[in-house]
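Lab notebook: predicted structure, single chain.

Context: the supervisor wants predicted structures on file for every construct in the current expression panel, including those that have not yet been purified. This is the next one on the list. No modifications to the sequence; it matches the entry in the shared construct table.
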Amino acid sequence: MSNLDLSAHASEISSTHQRILNNAADISWALYGFDRGSNALNVQARGSDGLEELAEEFDDGKVQFAFARVLDPNTRLSKFVFISWCGQGVPVFRKGLVGSQVGEVQRVLTGYHVSVVARTEADVQADEIMDQVARSSGAQYSYHTKPKAEKPVVAAKPKFGSQTAFRKGGSYGAPTVTKDPEWEAAAAAMSPPMSASRSNQPFGAGNSRPASSMYGSRAPTSSMPPAYKSQQQNESAATPAGLSPAYRSQQDERQAELEALRRGSRAPSQA
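Prediction complete. Output recorded below exactly as produced.
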């Protein structure tokens, strides 16, 4: 750590610092340094003519610090600059202490927006420092002199033809194809018109629909062959017991054959 003394002239340092922060008209910058052979920081110069005046006060053989008030060219507001100066002629052992001394001085001269590390006269030129102040403000334009930028106009999306036009669907965002009127007219011409009586009936009702079963659809009686139709009519003329006359005749003959067999099997046992 450095043996920097900030208490010996603390009141004078604080007074100039606060007057700069409070926009006092008679002071806009202050220069702080050390007397020969001393580590006590004191006020070496002050002024009100801006950075050009301050730049003339830096000594190439000294370690110095400055605090200045400037006018931001972008926002036209007051900004504060801290400058740490280490001239080319400073002894090497003094240069080694500058790094730790800068942090201690900054804790006293607070409220700055830009910190400048200066080693040559080019580093403390007013144009160079004001360029850093302009970049630190973040805005590269002045809202006092330039109009507000207008938002760019977004070009409209191209529209496709009626056959390839898409629009966002009502559910899940699925696209829906817009049909061509000519295509709908051609499809309607190919489909047979539905009768009024059938269109008013519920699904599956009406005599015009063929009867269906678990084995598939069955054609109506009017479209059956004559031989199959007569067989269906004979079967439909069933007895009250649910059997047709032909079926009952076959059953009677089979019953008679079984009875004859039973009689033949009993003849040897009777003898």
